Amino acid sequence: MTTPSLKISFRGTEFTLTVLAVLAFVVLALTTHGSVLHGDTLTAIFQFLAVPMVIGLAQMAVLGVGQMNLSVGVVTGFCAMVTAWLMVDVGLPAWLALLAGLATGAAIGLVNGLIVVLTRINGFIVTLATMTIIDGLRYGVHGTATYQGYSPGLVRLGQGSVLGVPTVFLFAVLVAIAVAVFFRHVTVGRQLLASGGNPLAARLSGVSNDRSLVLAHLLSGLLAGVAGVIVVALSGSVNATIGDDLLLPSFAAPIIGGVALAGGVISVVGTCLAALIVRLVDVAQAQYSINPDWVDLIVGAVVLGAVLITQLRGRAAT
Protein backbone atom coordinates (compact mmCIF):
# COMPACT_ATOMS: atom_id res chain seq x y z
CA MET A 1 0.00 0.00 0.00
CA THR A 2 2.85 2.36 0.69
CA THR A 3 4.70 4.36 -1.94
CA PRO A 4 7.86 6.50 -1.67
CA SER A 5 5.69 9.60 -1.20
CA LEU A 6 3.88 8.20 1.83
CA LYS A 7 6.58 8.70 4.41
CA ILE A 8 5.54 8.95 8.04
CA SER A 9 8.05 11.66 8.89
CA PHE A 10 10.87 13.92 7.72
CA ARG A 11 13.80 12.67 9.77
CA GLY A 12 15.86 15.72 8.84
CA THR A 13 13.10 18.02 10.04
CA GLU A 14 12.76 16.13 13.32
CA PHE A 15 16.50 16.32 13.97
CA THR A 16 16.52 20.05 13.17
CA LEU A 17 13.60 20.68 15.51
CA THR A 18 15.31 18.71 18.27
CA VAL A 19 18.42 20.85 17.94
CA LEU A 20 16.35 24.05 17.86
CA ALA A 21 14.39 23.01 20.97
CA VAL A 22 17.58 22.25 22.88
CA LEU A 23 19.21 25.50 21.80
CA ALA A 24 16.10 27.52 22.68
CA PHE A 25 15.96 25.97 26.13
CA VAL A 26 19.68 26.60 26.74
CA VAL A 27 19.34 30.23 25.65
CA LEU A 28 16.32 30.68 27.93
CA ALA A 29 18.21 29.14 30.85
CA LEU A 30 21.24 31.39 30.32
CA THR A 31 19.36 34.64 29.70
CA THR A 32 16.98 34.16 32.64
CA HIS A 33 19.80 33.23 35.05
CA GLY A 34 18.45 29.71 35.37
CA SER A 35 14.90 30.63 36.37
CA VAL A 36 13.40 28.25 33.78
CA LEU A 37 15.29 25.41 35.48
CA HIS A 38 13.31 25.82 38.69
CA GLY A 39 10.95 22.97 39.44
CA ASP A 40 7.76 25.03 39.33
CA THR A 41 8.71 26.61 36.01
CA LEU A 42 9.59 23.29 34.40
CA THR A 43 6.34 21.81 35.66
CA ALA A 44 4.36 24.70 34.17
CA ILE A 45 6.17 24.39 30.83
CA PHE A 46 5.25 20.73 30.42
CA GLN A 47 1.79 20.98 31.97
CA PHE A 48 0.71 23.58 29.44
CA LEU A 49 2.47 21.76 26.60
CA ALA A 50 -0.03 18.89 26.76
CA VAL A 51 -2.93 20.70 25.08
CA PRO A 52 -0.87 22.21 22.19
CA MET A 53 0.61 18.76 21.51
CA VAL A 54 -2.78 17.06 21.26
CA ILE A 55 -4.31 19.96 19.31
CA GLY A 56 -1.42 19.75 16.83
CA LEU A 57 -2.08 16.03 16.41
CA ALA A 58 -5.78 16.77 15.85
CA GLN A 59 -4.91 19.12 12.99
CA MET A 60 -2.30 16.68 11.68
CA ALA A 61 -4.94 13.96 11.29
CA VAL A 62 -6.90 15.94 8.69
CA LEU A 63 -3.80 17.37 7.04
CA GLY A 64 -2.88 13.75 6.37
CA VAL A 65 -5.73 13.58 3.85
CA GLY A 66 -5.06 17.06 2.46
CA GLN A 67 -7.83 18.78 4.44
CA MET A 68 -7.96 21.33 7.26
CA ASN A 69 -10.03 21.55 10.43
CA LEU A 70 -10.69 25.13 11.52
CA SER A 71 -12.96 23.98 14.33
CA VAL A 72 -10.40 22.17 16.52
CA GLY A 73 -10.08 25.07 18.95
CA VAL A 74 -13.78 25.66 19.55
CA VAL A 75 -14.43 21.90 19.65
CA THR A 76 -11.83 21.63 22.41
CA GLY A 77 -13.55 24.39 24.35
CA PHE A 78 -17.02 22.95 23.73
CA CYS A 79 -15.98 19.47 24.88
CA ALA A 80 -14.41 20.97 28.00
CA MET A 81 -17.64 22.84 28.78
CA VAL A 82 -19.80 19.76 28.17
CA THR A 83 -17.58 17.69 30.47
CA ALA A 84 -17.63 20.29 33.26
CA TRP A 85 -21.38 20.92 32.84
CA LEU A 86 -22.15 17.21 33.18
CA MET A 87 -20.20 17.05 36.43
CA VAL A 88 -21.44 20.32 37.95
CA ASP A 89 -25.07 20.64 36.82
CA VAL A 90 -26.04 17.07 35.91
CA GLY A 91 -24.04 15.40 38.67
CA LEU A 92 -22.40 12.68 36.59
CA PRO A 93 -19.28 11.01 37.99
CA ALA A 94 -16.02 12.29 36.54
CA TRP A 95 -15.20 9.19 34.50
CA LEU A 96 -18.58 9.22 32.77
CA ALA A 97 -18.41 12.96 32.09
CA LEU A 98 -14.93 12.53 30.58
CA LEU A 99 -16.19 9.78 28.27
CA ALA A 100 -19.07 12.04 27.24
CA GLY A 101 -16.60 14.83 26.45
CA LEU A 102 -14.57 12.49 24.25
CA ALA A 103 -17.73 11.23 22.55
CA THR A 104 -18.82 14.81 21.88
CA GLY A 105 -15.57 15.57 20.08
CA ALA A 106 -15.74 12.35 18.06
CA ALA A 107 -19.37 13.04 17.10
CA ILE A 108 -18.56 16.55 15.88
CA GLY A 109 -15.64 15.18 13.88
CA LEU A 110 -17.88 12.48 12.38
CA VAL A 111 -20.44 15.09 11.35
CA ASN A 112 -17.68 17.18 9.75
CA GLY A 113 -16.44 14.18 7.79
CA LEU A 114 -19.89 13.10 6.63
CA ILE A 115 -20.74 16.62 5.45
CA VAL A 116 -17.47 16.79 3.49
CA VAL A 117 -18.15 13.43 1.81
CA LEU A 118 -21.85 13.96 1.13
CA THR A 119 -21.59 17.53 -0.16
CA ARG A 120 -18.09 17.36 -1.71
CA ILE A 121 -17.38 20.73 -0.08
CA ASN A 122 -13.80 21.15 1.09
CA GLY A 123 -13.20 20.59 4.80
CA PHE A 124 -11.89 24.15 5.11
CA ILE A 125 -15.36 25.53 4.37
CA VAL A 126 -17.25 22.85 6.29
CA THR A 127 -15.20 23.26 9.47
CA LEU A 128 -15.36 27.03 9.17
CA ALA A 129 -19.14 26.71 9.28
CA THR A 130 -19.16 24.21 12.15
CA MET A 131 -16.64 26.37 14.03
CA THR A 132 -19.08 29.28 13.85
CA ILE A 133 -22.03 27.11 14.88
CA ILE A 134 -20.22 25.57 17.85
CA ASP A 135 -18.89 28.95 18.89
CA GLY A 136 -22.45 30.21 18.97
CA LEU A 137 -23.54 27.19 21.01
CA ARG A 138 -20.80 27.80 23.57
CA TYR A 139 -21.98 31.31 24.27
CA GLY A 140 -25.67 30.96 23.38
CA VAL A 141 -26.41 27.88 25.47
CA HIS A 142 -23.93 28.21 28.33
CA GLY A 143 -23.37 31.96 28.26
CA THR A 144 -20.33 33.31 30.04
CA ALA A 145 -20.77 31.13 33.12
CA THR A 146 -17.72 29.46 34.62
CA TYR A 147 -17.96 25.86 35.74
CA GLN A 148 -15.80 25.06 38.72
CA GLY A 149 -15.81 23.01 41.90
CA TYR A 150 -16.07 19.71 40.03
CA SER A 151 -14.34 16.44 41.02
CA PRO A 152 -11.43 17.43 43.30
CA GLY A 153 -9.87 14.04 42.57
CA LEU A 154 -9.82 14.75 38.84
CA VAL A 155 -8.22 18.15 39.40
CA ARG A 156 -5.60 16.65 41.72
CA LEU A 157 -4.81 14.06 39.07
CA GLY A 158 -4.59 16.71 36.35
CA GLN A 159 -2.29 18.91 38.39
CA GLY A 160 -0.26 16.03 39.81
CA SER A 161 2.98 14.48 38.63
CA VAL A 162 4.78 11.15 38.37
CA LEU A 163 8.44 11.27 39.37
CA GLY A 164 8.31 15.03 38.83
CA VAL A 165 6.75 14.82 35.36
CA PRO A 166 3.22 16.30 35.06
CA THR A 167 0.57 13.65 34.56
CA VAL A 168 -1.18 15.59 31.78
CA PHE A 169 2.09 15.73 29.81
CA LEU A 170 2.60 11.98 30.26
CA PHE A 171 -0.96 11.45 29.06
CA ALA A 172 -0.31 13.62 25.98
CA VAL A 173 2.81 11.55 25.23
CA LEU A 174 0.75 8.35 25.44
CA VAL A 175 -1.80 9.88 23.05
CA ALA A 176 1.01 10.78 20.62
CA ILE A 177 2.36 7.22 20.77
CA ALA A 178 -1.12 5.84 20.08
CA VAL A 179 -1.52 8.16 17.08
CA ALA A 180 1.91 7.15 15.73
CA VAL A 181 1.05 3.45 16.07
CA PHE A 182 -2.29 4.04 14.34
CA PHE A 183 -0.72 5.65 11.27
CA ARG A 184 2.28 3.34 11.08
CA HIS A 185 0.89 -0.07 11.96
CA VAL A 186 -2.91 -0.03 11.65
CA THR A 187 -4.26 -0.76 8.17
CA VAL A 188 -6.90 1.97 8.10
CA GLY A 189 -4.33 4.50 9.29
CA ARG A 190 -1.98 3.61 6.45
CA GLN A 191 -4.90 3.70 4.03
CA LEU A 192 -5.75 7.19 5.27
CA LEU A 193 -2.27 8.37 4.31
CA ALA A 194 -2.54 6.58 0.98
CA SER A 195 -5.72 8.51 0.23
CA GLY A 196 -4.02 11.76 1.15
CA GLY A 197 -0.88 11.07 -0.90
CA ASN A 198 -2.52 9.83 -4.09
CA PRO A 199 -6.32 9.45 -4.04
CA LEU A 200 -6.47 7.89 -7.52
CA ALA A 201 -3.84 5.25 -6.75
CA ALA A 202 -5.52 4.54 -3.42
CA ARG A 203 -8.90 4.03 -5.09
CA LEU A 204 -7.40 1.73 -7.70
CA SER A 205 -5.88 -0.27 -4.83
CA GLY A 206 -9.30 -0.74 -3.27
CA VAL A 207 -9.07 1.99 -0.64
CA SER A 208 -12.21 4.03 0.02
CA ASN A 209 -11.17 7.68 -0.09
CA ASP A 210 -14.53 8.70 1.36
CA ARG A 211 -13.98 6.45 4.36
CA SER A 212 -10.52 7.94 4.83
CA LEU A 213 -11.96 11.47 4.84
CA VAL A 214 -14.61 10.58 7.41
CA LEU A 215 -12.09 8.73 9.57
CA ALA A 216 -9.60 11.62 9.46
CA HIS A 217 -12.22 14.13 10.62
CA LEU A 218 -13.53 11.73 13.27
CA LEU A 219 -10.00 11.24 14.63
CA SER A 220 -9.42 14.99 14.59
CA GLY A 221 -12.62 15.58 16.57
CA LEU A 222 -11.74 12.83 19.04
CA LEU A 223 -8.31 14.33 19.65
CA ALA A 224 -9.89 17.76 20.15
CA GLY A 225 -12.12 16.09 22.73
CA VAL A 226 -9.02 14.64 24.40
CA ALA A 227 -7.56 18.15 24.58
CA GLY A 228 -10.84 19.33 26.09
CA VAL A 229 -10.78 16.81 28.93
CA ILE A 230 -7.11 17.66 29.58
CA VAL A 231 -8.18 21.29 30.01
CA VAL A 232 -10.87 20.24 32.48
CA ALA A 233 -8.44 18.18 34.55
CA LEU A 234 -5.69 20.77 34.44
CA SER A 235 -7.47 24.07 34.99
CA GLY A 236 -10.10 23.32 37.62
CA SER A 237 -12.51 25.79 35.97
CA VAL A 238 -13.97 26.09 32.49
CA ASN A 239 -15.76 28.88 30.61
CA ALA A 240 -16.78 29.71 27.05
CA THR A 241 -13.45 31.34 26.16
CA ILE A 242 -11.57 28.04 26.27
CA GLY A 243 -10.14 27.19 22.86
CA ASP A 244 -10.32 30.66 21.31
CA ASP A 245 -6.52 30.90 21.09
CA LEU A 246 -5.82 27.37 19.83
CA LEU A 247 -6.36 27.72 16.08
CA LEU A 248 -2.91 29.12 15.22
CA PRO A 249 -1.02 26.61 17.45
CA SER A 250 -3.02 23.77 15.89
CA PHE A 251 -1.57 24.64 12.48
CA ALA A 252 1.84 25.76 13.71
CA ALA A 253 2.79 22.44 15.31
CA PRO A 254 2.16 20.09 12.36
CA ILE A 255 3.27 22.50 9.63
CA ILE A 256 6.53 23.41 11.37
CA GLY A 257 6.87 19.73 12.26
CA GLY A 258 7.03 18.66 8.62
CA VAL A 259 3.47 17.62 7.80
CA ALA A 260 2.60 18.06 4.13
CA LEU A 261 -0.35 20.36 3.40
CA ALA A 262 -1.15 18.33 0.30
CA GLY A 263 -1.62 15.17 2.36
CA GLY A 264 0.09 11.80 2.55
CA VAL A 265 2.94 12.79 4.88
CA ILE A 266 2.71 13.20 8.64
CA SER A 267 5.18 13.45 11.51
CA VAL A 268 3.99 12.78 15.04
CA VAL A 269 7.43 13.44 16.53
CA GLY A 270 7.89 16.60 14.45
CA THR A 271 4.46 17.88 15.48
CA CYS A 272 5.22 17.36 19.18
CA LEU A 273 8.67 18.97 18.89
CA ALA A 274 7.22 21.96 17.07
CA ALA A 275 4.57 22.31 19.81
CA LEU A 276 7.42 22.38 22.35
CA ILE A 277 9.21 25.12 20.43
CA VAL A 278 6.03 27.22 20.25
CA ARG A 279 5.58 26.64 23.98
CA LEU A 280 9.13 27.88 24.61
CA VAL A 281 8.28 31.01 22.61
CA ASP A 282 5.38 31.57 25.02
CA VAL A 283 7.74 31.08 27.96
CA ALA A 284 10.15 33.62 26.47
CA GLN A 285 7.26 36.07 26.08
CA ALA A 286 6.47 35.76 29.78
CA GLN A 287 10.09 35.88 30.90
CA TYR A 288 11.02 38.91 28.80
CA SER A 289 7.63 40.68 29.05
CA ILE A 290 7.24 40.73 25.27
CA ASN A 291 4.01 42.04 23.76
CA PRO A 292 1.89 38.92 22.97
CA ASP A 293 1.06 40.36 19.55
CA TRP A 294 4.73 40.05 18.62
CA VAL A 295 4.66 36.39 19.61
CA ASP A 296 1.72 35.74 17.28
CA LEU A 297 3.56 37.60 14.52
CA ILE A 298 6.68 35.47 15.00
CA VAL A 299 4.76 32.18 15.09
CA GLY A 300 2.73 33.17 12.04
CA ALA A 301 5.88 34.13 10.13
CA VAL A 302 7.52 30.81 11.01
CA VAL A 303 4.45 28.90 9.80
CA LEU A 304 4.46 30.86 6.53
CA GLY A 305 8.19 30.20 6.13
CA ALA A 306 7.67 26.47 6.72
CA VAL A 307 4.96 26.38 4.05
CA LEU A 308 7.18 28.22 1.56
CA ILE A 309 10.12 25.89 2.23
CA THR A 310 7.86 22.86 1.72
CA GLN A 311 6.66 24.30 -1.59
CA LEU A 312 10.21 24.93 -2.76
CA ARG A 313 11.25 21.39 -1.81
CA GLY A 314 8.31 20.00 -3.77
CA ARG A 315 9.23 21.99 -6.86
CA ALA A 316 12.87 20.99 -6.57
CA ALA A 317 11.88 17.33 -6.31
CA THR A 318 9.91 17.58 -9.56
Automatic annotation (TrEMBL):
It is a multi-pass membrane protein. The chain crosses the membrane at residues 44-63, 70-88, 94-117, 124-141, 161-183, 213-235, 255-281, 293-312. The keyword Plastid does not apply. It is found in: Cell membrane. GO terms for cellular component: plasma membrane. This is Autoinducer 2 import system permease protein LsrD. It comes from Kutzneria buriramensis. Keywords: Cell inner membrane, Cell membrane, Membrane, Transmembrane, Transmembrane helix, Transport. The lineage of its organism: Bacteria, Bacillati, Actinomycetota, Actinomycetes, Pseudonocardiales. One of its GO terms (molecular function) is transmembrane transporter activity. The keyword DNA-binding does not apply.
